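Typical record was shown:
=====
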Amino acid sequence: ILDTVNFNFFGNEYNTNRVAVLGLKGILGDIADGILGEDYFSGKVLEVNYQHKFMKIYDSVYADLTKGYSKIVCENVKNRLYVPLKLKVNDSLEIDGKFTLDLGSGGSVSLTSPVAKQFDLGQKIEQKIKYYTHYGGVGGKSSRYSFRSESLFIGDYELNDFVMDYSEDKKGALASTKHHGL
């Protein structure tokens, strides 16, 4: 739909310049009415604070607000933000690439099915659990394997021993070759 929608978000008025129609209720249940994307955040600073469980938008940021934070340079391609990550899956396998920043994704890191195939993850990861859902995202049905990764490097941070997954999807974001995952 190429039309404008006007709405208020935390006291800020916003006018969209395009609207995508997605069946979000079937994917996310009754808690979702829409998705705010790059157009909304363009020219602003988004603070994602996992420790205190909030997101906040700033028009600009001063040095005192960034104490304790590290800057992670993201790449913007056609209104998609990509974050550089390095994964140490196990002692013999490292994956380095760009990952789509998806604040709506329910997991930590999800590798695409092309990456899973390229690195032969089905054979190289011994301890894993398969799960399947009819509501895997905008692409619909999804099949994935969850496993423990040794470490993840993002900016100046290293996260150790965390659960992530790799996809077997045939369509949608986790079947794309444009990125390594979400």
